[in-house]
Amino acid sequence: MTSQSTSDTIITARGLTKQFTVKRTRVDAVTDLDLDVARGELVAFLGPNGAGKSTSLRMLTTLLPPTRGTAVVAGHDIAGDPAAVRRRIGYIGQGTSGGNNQRVRDELLSQGAFYGMSRRDTARRADELLESLDLAPLAKRTVMGLSGGQKRRLDIALGLIHSPSLLFLDEPSTGLDPQSRANLWQHILDLREQHGTTIFVTTHYLEEADQFAERVLVMDHGRVIVDDTAVSLKTTLAGDVITLGFDGGPDARGAADAIARAREVAARQLEGNAGEVTSAAAGAVGGRPGGASYRAPRSGEAMGGQPGGATNPASRTGDAGATATQRLELVVDHGDRVLPVLLRELDASGITVTSAALRRPTLDDVFLALTGRSLRDEGETTASAASTGAPADPTTATAPTTATASAPERVSA
Amino acid sequence: MTITPTSPVRDTANVLVRELRPVVRDPFSLIFSLLQPLVFLGLFGPLLVASSGQPASETLQWFVPGILVMIALFGTGTTGSNLLFEMQTGSHERTLVAPIARSSLLIGRALKEMAPIIVQAGVIALVTIPFGFSVNPAGMLIGLVLLAVFGLGFGSLSYALALASRNRDWMFWAVQQATVFPLMILSGMLLPLEGGPAWMQVAAAFNPLSYVVTAERALFAGDLSSPAVLWGFVAAIVLAAIGLAVGIRSMKKSR
Fold this sequence. Notes:
The complex is a heterodimer of chains A (about 425) and B (about 260).
Chain A: E1 9-22, E2 25-38, E3 42-46, H1 53-60, E4 68-73, E5 76-77, H2 82-88, E6 89-92, H3 104-114, H4 119-132, H5 148-160, E7 166-170, H6 178-195, E8 198-203, H7 206-212, E9 215-220, E10 223-228, H8 230-237, E11 240-247, H9 252-269, H10 281-287, H11 312-317, E12 325-332, H12 335-348, E13 353-359, H13 363-371, H14 384-387, H15 401-406
Parallel strand pairs in A: 3-8, 3-9, 6-7, 7-8
Antiparallel strand pairs in A: 1-2, 1-4, 4-5, 9-10, 11-12, 11-13
Chain B: H1 8-25, H2 28-32, H3 35-52, H4 56-77, H5 80-89, H6 91-97, H7 102-112, H8 114-128, H9 137-164, H10 169-185, H11 198-205, H12 208-220, H13 227-252
Organism (chain A): Herbiconiux ginsengi
Keywords (chain A): ATP-binding, Nucleotide-binding
InterPro entries (chain A): AAA+_ATPase, ABC_transporter-like_ATP-bd, ABC_transporter-like_CS, P-loop_NTPase
């Protein structure tokens, strides 16, 4: 984590800590958060529920006084001059910002007045936001009568009424259908493009962080465990996943030998610096005949997952009953270069590969590599194997269908 | 866009305007909430007339001012539930992040309580005139001001209770019910306490609501110089001061 404090820094936090006492037990919600966010950045705070993301956000937005530590947000100290911070930031919380029995436009007018805007400025800005967020036809409706997506758009409009240069969003897309989610992100990205707004967003949807943020902070148990770009996180912390399908019964030994050869060839081609195929994959094939798949663990640590989880769709798509379909999953670096070599070696050994898929790592894989736990199914370890099969990019056309179904739909910017 | 720092007075006005907007948009909501006092007037009133053995007009003269205080009591006693709801949905949080003085968040809401009381009590007073209730206009105006001051204080306490009941809304209703009904009965609002046991009369002497009820009766009867009026205002102002102090303190600790 770099510690620089220039005039272009819009958030600086040092040792920010929050402890709660719940039933006489101390809970460390956030511990020693150090953070520098530059003007114009789009930062995603990623972590499972209860990791401390919202608590961090609530401290930075002056909603919660820190137990320890300091933070300067938008040029003002959160403890020393909270009112000045509040005037300069926008905050879109997890809940519904609009009052239930308030009309949509009325809430915007009230909000503008709260921020000290003149009546004329407020009215103009309110109409502008109603238009751009497709809320104009709903202006006279009460918040109670809005759908979830419409309420969320109003939340955004309320957060933007004073055109803040720094916008905090706490789990903005939770509970939204894929279309509303795509729509919401489009608005956020437009905002950034047009006004250079700094955006700080918490999410537990790794796809969002992956797709939209150039900088990702992963939080777990109240601590930031990594702070890097999404791309760099994926290349340094998680490998590519190759999934091969074989038809016509177990030929595990042959496959294992071919993979071992492929590994050597690939390693030679890549001059030894990469292309190492994680071990343990081959042995697993022999161990689980009849439709087994195995996701090799990156570290020596056991996965805790149930490898059989992802195999069902494969069996289903294969011949009904008689012929078993085998699937094999490998975690490799530079999968795009390993896969062709692998296919050639298997072919040379007379082993027919019926399907081959390369999946780029997701932030979920990163989280798994960092913590040994899956981000998506926090607390549901049995499902982790299936969930890591979630698609990350279009190369995963043949990814297990169960995982595809359970994964939130991706949106394109 | 120019963002200018706002003063607490401006903040209070902004909060008040926001609270009043739904009322202005849908004024009938005020009339519908008159159902409960109307039930008491229509169903309890005749029983009271029958059991008192006095003419209807005289009984109404005693009973209607009590009903007006009841409107203020029930209307403002439950108002905290609106804040409780806004705390649960997130719109209260939104106002906490906005640059609004914490005290204004409470005072603006509490001031709003005065408006419905004045409208509702005015309507009820006028509706009962054809049935023999006589109104002294000056007394009625002063009486409505007294009710508004009481409502400001009791509403603030209701908000403070809501803030204290965060994440436990059952507690709000339990305390609210446990407070409002004893206050009502021990104020001599529905039935005179003179015939009750001595301990009830002692309890009533400590109930600020008793003084407000007695003052309202004197005011509507045109007895403007009665000491009861003074005591009514003392009780209402003390309650308002305590209510605002407790309410503002709770709001400052609000998260």
